[in-house]
Structures are given as C-alpha cells and as structure tokens.
Amino acid sequence: MSNIDFIQEEKAADIGNFLVGRLLPFRQKRTIGPFVFIDHMGPACLADYQNLDVAPHPHIGLSTLTYLFDGAITHRDSMGNEIEIHPGAVNWMTAGRGVTHSERTPEYLRTRDKFLHGLQIWVALPKELEFMEPEFYHVDAPDIPAWSDGDVSYKLIAGEAFGKRSKVPVYSPLYMLEITAAKDVTIDIGDQLFGESGLYILDGEIKNLGHTYGSKQILITKDAHLCSFSMKAGTTVYIFGGEAFVEERFIFWNFVATDKQTIEGAKELWRNHQFPRVPNDEGYVPLPETHLK
Length: 293
Prior knowledge:
Layout: E1 6-9, E2 11-15, E3 18-24, E4 35-46, E5 53-59, E6 62-70, E7 73-77, E8 82-85, E9 90-94, E10 99-104, E11 114-124, E12 135-139, E13 146-149, E14 152-161, E15 164-165, E16 174-181, E17 185-188, E18 196-203, E19 205-208, E20 211-214, E21 217-221, E22 228-231, E23 236-242, E24 250-252, E25 255-257, H1 260-271
Antiparallel strand pairs: 1-21, 2-3, 3-4, 4-11, 5-10, 6-9, 6-11, 7-8, 7-10, 9-12, 13-14, 14-15, 14-16, 16-23, 17-22, 18-21, 18-23, 19-20, 19-22, 24-25
C-alpha cells in the first residue's frame, strides 16, 4: 500500500464488560470512506462466569456490521429481530432515524467457558438517508462471495470490488474485504478499489516500500488505487474503504449525524426512554454525559 498517510495501533476500550481494541476513529483520522467506527473484539477466552452483555442502547444515522471469527452473539433489536451471529456471517442493522439493540452471550453458553473474537463496525449513512426507517439483514457465511487467486484467498464481506457484489445492502459506494495468504506473496489490487482505504492486519505481517508492519496495526491511504503490498504466509488482512462523504459527521456515543441538533434530539429521546424498546431484553445503558467527537 504505497503513500500510507496514517499508521495506527489498536487502543483498548470497553464495551459492556468486554475489552476491545479500537481502530477507528482516532485523533488524526475520524473516518475511512463512509466507515466511522471499527472495533476489534478479542480474541478472548471467557470463563463460565464471564459473558458479553451489551444491554439495550440506541443508534441513529448509521449501519452496524458485526463479523465474527470465533464464538457467538445473540442480537436483539427494537424491530423484533432476534438472531444468533456465528463466524463468517454478516449481521447488518441500519438505524436510520432510530433503533435500539442489545448484544449478549447466548443463553446456552453463559455457564460454559467460551471464546469470542470478531469485528464491530459502523458505516455512516448518506445525508439523504439519515432518517430512513430502520432495517435489518443477516447474511449467512456461505452466501458471502469468496474466491481464490493463486495462493491468495478473498472474501467480499460488504460492498463491491473485483467485479463482485456482496448481498449486504449497503447505501453508499464501499467495500470490506478479507484477504488471506497461504504463501509469501505480493499483491497489487489498487485497480480494484476506490476512494480512501484502510488495511487492518489481523494476523501475520505485510511489507510496503521496505517497511514491515505487524498484527493489530491499521494502515490508511487517501488513494486506494495505490494499494499494493507483500504478505507473509499465514497473514490475514481486512481492507475497508470507499467514497468519503462531503458532509462532516458528528459522533456522540452511538449517534452519528450531519448536524449537532439531530444528536441533541436523540440524546433527549434516550434520556426520556422514548426510543423503541427491545423485546425480551429490559436492560438500559444510561446516556454518557460527555462523548461528542
């Protein structure tokens, strides 16, 4: 990936009672294309008394994407959806004008030792769709486009790239790719990408212009057409990117909007318990006092 503009290490953050590595946003870079938030969950071995418990909380102005490498999460939302997320599947929830959801360890795993590992991502909605009706889609692992080119394996988790399209119904030009190398290899895929691009190294290492980068680093370039790098055997990377929005995005807690007044309105609704409720989950996450980004 030539002309790297930013290099960022994971930074620890808490979600519920679970520690994650935050990849985006950070001070020097708030977005990558339409992507506004990326968390790396785990890998974690949870004991029989430890569980993921993110109680009902609200979102506006974005779509959430959950993608697991290991473990399971029960997703419940105010649209009435209740589904268990498994590795390789894509859980895609579009908040629009407002949605509430929770994420918890499934009941049958709560008293067992278990693993959890994956990515949680927010994608901002175009300005004209910020107040759309909430939607939910779940795409099973076998339905994600996957192919190989020599010693390199690809998955198109969301968006469009390489002349392929994921079934995940995105609302702006973007892509999220998984790339794994079976042997040492150099790839140049810039002609398949567009806009801004971020490359996250999950495992292994890559080399670019004589520099070596290892796991838990994210590399960002403002021109995805310059995306070329060497991968060591056994390396897995994730590439996120797409066309950036013209309008600035404000983020407060779980709210994303093009103006602060919309966020203030959402804050008031949540304080007054006026967001829709999640069936079969009566928990509540209080609004933080300061969280504007």
